[in-house]
Structure formats: structure tokens, C-alpha cells
Specification:
442 residues, Aspartate Aminotransferase, domain 1, Aspartate Aminotransferase, domain 2, seven-stranded mixed sheet, four-stranded mixed sheet, 37% helix, binds pyridoxal-5'-phosphate
């Protein structure tokens, strides 16, 4: 007898959804069928204000004509080109355009298909770089508690979110974690960078002393930790990490999968905080979320270390079938055009003060225990219901959706990251809806 599900096209059982409460969703599905600019259209016809840029990726807003046209044109012109030992012009053009907006010195780009793959790529570059330099003992990777670096094995090993790690065995060996920087007792309701916690960076010195610098390849951090519920770096913290890494010959990787492409008001967080890492991982906003693509930026120092040996030999044994895919490259080029024409890579800097003001006006809402913000990012932390962690925020998410607003929750924290085209009126609308949700007893 067949053990197939007896499915019809709109049967929901076959698709095992990612990072989703599948049983809850399938009882009462939230289906999106269209999108334009700041809004989704739900299957019941309602307009849903996008408070999260999809998943932190649709920075220019939805269905932007330049991007959709570029994809259609590319699909009809050159649909695919082999990524290994062959090239096509748009991937090279894109790499150059990316280097132009990246922090000074980030002169080379490796392409991937997602943030998770960008992280794996950067970790592998770090290990291989030290080996090419004759420092093969530098194999240890350092992440941070509450860090999120995607879902692949390298990323969850250096990541520090327990639910993402605990089911998956021993992960990579030789990984250590710095403490997170969340100090609610001292920093609650801070606007922008917290005053307290910069010194936590010196914990890296303790880890270096424990293992010896000669065993450590790289430190990876999100400049602003997003998926754990928005943790903004305390003043001085990132600079201090940079100093310690430089002192000990350790590579510093900024995971900018959410902060890249204008989220903080500069193209990258490295520029915003004026701290130069050795590598930057990115994805999401690179193509406005429309086509999967990621990019890893590296310095010439790293790139050039690999360019040795016989010229017919492959220098780095790594890559993906879809690295620099023509359609993704075309989407990314059109995305960069759109960002440039509309000033979106710096717009968050202009609108951030208004955003901050409106966000913090929710301070008096029930159960709010902290509010934090930077650029066009906001977080509202709620007091968990005793014995039922995450339930209060999840209820808020459901109620907001019913009221026509998409928010994102992680634990009992509401995270907001709207498209960078949001207007003041739409910011007002967003926080008015959220106030109703929170006052309605979510
Ligand atoms: C900092 C960071 N790194 C990596 C990832 C993983 O990206 P992806 O889901 O594209 O694999 C994310 C996703 O949210 C992220 O926020």
C-alpha cells in the first residue's frame, strides 16, 4: 500500500515549514499572495504593513519594477552559467560595485546563496588563510553567546542561541564563546548604543589567555545582534574587539547579514561604527530579498595570500553551483541601482531620530520591560508570562497580523526592521497599531 499523503494543491501537510510552529500555522494559516512597496496582500485581501522588511531583507520595499524587470530580462538572456572555471560579466560587475560601497580595504568578494552560506564561507576562508600563511595551528573559532550566524554546522557552532544548537550533537569542535552584551539592569530603555558593557570585550583576552593566540583563527560577531532580539553594541565594545584581534593576529569577521545594505544608515555597520573587520558576511538586502544570494567581503591581505602556487591550480577549494548566478547577479545590480537612485543606503540615518521617538513612546504600554533601537531597527522586550516563555510575544504577533501589521518575535521580544522606504506616516501607523496590540492585552 502506498504511504503517500493524499494531497490536493492546497493541502498544507506536505510542506514542513522552517522556523515555524507548523501545527499552529496549519490550523489558521497566514497566507501572503501579493506585495507592493510597504505592504503585503493577504489571501483574504487585507493590506498588511510590513514592519520587518520580510525577514530583514526587502530593504527597498516590495516588487520594485527595476529589480523585477532585470530578473525577467536576465532569465531570457543568460539563465545560467557554470560557476566553476567559467564566468559571466554581471558577476564581475557586481563584485566591483559591491567593493565600491564596502568599507575601504574590502577589495574582494566571494558569492554564496544565503547568509548561512556566507558564514560557512568566511569561517573556511579564515582557517585556510592561516594555513596558507604557515599558521596551521590557528584552528579555533570564537563566537558569542546569543549570536546568530545561520543554521549550518559552522554557523550554529559559533552561534549562541541554545534552541538552534541543542538538538544537533557536538557541532564543530574547537569553538569558544564570548559573553553576550545584554545588561538590562543597567541599560534598559537606552536610545542607541548602551553606555554599559563596552568592557565585556576584554573577555576575549581571557579566552586568548586560556587557549593561546596561536590556536585561534577568527572571531565572528554580528555588529548588532538581530535574531536574538536586537542587542546593540555597547559604546567602545566593537573597537575593543578589533584591538584585541589585531594584537593577537586573529581575524575579525562581522556578520552583516542584517546590518548590511543600509539598515543603520551607512552601507555597512563597519562604516557606521567606524570599525574595520577583516571579513564581512552579507546576504538578504543584497538582492532586496528577491533572489537568494550572499556575498563575503575580504581584504586584499586575505585574498592575496591565496594567489600563489602554479597558475593552473585552483587556489581555494570552495564554491557553490549558484555562486554569482546570472539572475541573482542581475537582481543585485538592479537592487544597488535602486538603493543609489533613492539614497536608501543612508536614508535610515535621516529617519532614525523620528523612528526612535515613536518607538520609545510605547514605554508606558503594559508588560514592556525594555525598548532598544539603532538605525531602522527597534526592539520591544515584554515581560514573559510566568511558566509560558514566548507566548506573550507570539500572541502580539498574531494580534498584530489580524490588525494588518507584520512584526517579528523572538523569545518575548518584538523586533522591528521595516523597509528603508518607510514614511513618517507609515511609522505613525505602525506604532499606533502596535500600541493597540500591546494595550489590548497581548
Ligand atoms: C546575522 C545573520 N547571519 C546569518 C543569517 C542566516 O541567513 P540565511 O537565513 O540567509 O541563511 C542571518 C539570518 O537572519 C542573520 O541574521
Amino acid at each position: 500500500m502506498s504511504n503517500r499523503l493524499n494531497t490536493s494543491p492546497n493541502d498544507l501537510r506536505a510542506f514542513w515549514m522552517p522556523f515555524t510552529a507548523n501545527r499552529q500555522f496549519k490550523q489558521n494559516p497566514r497566507m501572503l499572495v501579493g506585495a507592493r512597496d510597504m505592504h503585503f496582500t493577504a489571501s483574504d485581501g487585507r493590506q498588511i504593513l510590513d514592519g520587518t522588511a520580510g525577514l530583514w531583507c526587502v530593504n527597498a520595499g516590495h516588487c520594485r519594477p527595476k529589480i523585477t524587470e532585470a530578473i525577467a530580462q536576465q532569465a531570457g538572456e543568460l539563465d545560467y552559467a557554470p560557476a566553476f572555471q567559467m564566468g559571466h560579466p554581471k558577476a564581475f560587475e557586481l563584485a566591483n560595485r559591491l567593493v565600491d560601497i564596502a568599507p575601504d580595504g574590502m577589495n574582494h568578494v566571494l558569492f554564496t546563496n544565503s547568509g548561512s552560506e556566507s558564514v560557512e564561507t568566511a569561517l573556511k576562508v579564515a582557517l585556510a588563510y592561516h594555513r596558507t600563511k604557515g599558521n596551521g595551528s590557528r584552528t579555533r573559532l570564537i563566537g558569542r553567546e546569543r549570536g546568530y550566524h545561520g543554521v549550518n554546522f559552522g554557523g550554529i557552532s559559533v552561534g549562541g542561541i541554545v534552541s538552534n544548537r541543542k538538538m544537533f550533537g557536538t557541532l564543530l569542535t574547537g569553538v569558544d564563546h564570548m559573553p553576550h552584551t545584554h545588561l538590562p539592569a543597567q541599560n534598559a530603555f537606552t536610545r542607541g548604543q548602551p553606555e554599559h558593557g563596552g568592557d565585556i570585550a576584554s573577555e576575549l583576552e581571557r579566552i586568548v589567555t586560556l587557549h593561546d593566540a596561536s590556536t585561534i583563527a577568527a572571531v565572528i560577531v554580528e555588529p548588532v545582534a538581530g535574531s536574538t532580539g536586537v542587542l546593540i553594541p555597547p559604546k567602545g565594545y566593537l573597537k575593543k574587539l578589533r584591538e584585541i584581534c589585531t594584537k593577537h593576529g586573529i581575524l575579525l569577521i562581522f556578520d552583516e547579514v542584517i546590518t548590511g545594505f543600509g539598515r543603520l544608515g551607512s552601507p555597512f555597520a563597519a562604516q557606521h561604527y567606524d570599525v574595520m573587520p577583516d571579513m564581512i558576511t552579507s546576504a538578504k538586502g543584497l538582492t532586496n530579498g528577491v533572489i537568494p544570494m550572499g556575498a563575503v567581503f575580504v581584504t586584499s591581505e586575505i585574498h592575496d595570500a591565496f594567489m600563489q602556487g602554479p597558475e593552473h591550480m585552483i587556489e581555494f577549494f570552495h564554491g557553490y553551483t549558484y555562486s554569482g548566478n546570472p539572475i541573482a547577479s542581475a537582481a543585485a545590480l538592479a537592487t544597488l541601482d535602486t538603493y543609489k537612485e533613492e539614497g536608501l543606503l543612508t536614508r535610515a540615518a535621516d529617519i532614525a531620530p523620528y523612528w526612535e521617538e515613536q518607538l520609545h513612546s510605547l514605554k508606558d504600554c503594559p508588560h514592556v520591560i525594555d525598548i532598544r533601537n539603532t538605525g531602522l531597527i527597534g526592539a520591544i522586550e515584554l515581560d514573559p508570562i510566568a511558566g509560558e516563555p514566548t507566548k506573550r510575544a507570539f500572541s502580539a504577533f498574531l494580534k498584530a497580523y489580524d490588525d494588518g501589521l507584520l512584526i517579528r518575535t523572538t523569545g518575548d521580544i518584538i523586533a522591528l526592521s521595516p523597509p528603508l522606504i518607510i514614511t513618517r506616516d507609515q511609522i505613525d501607523e505602525l506604532f499606533e497599531k502596535l500600541r493597540n496590540v500591546l494595550e489590548g492585552g497581548a
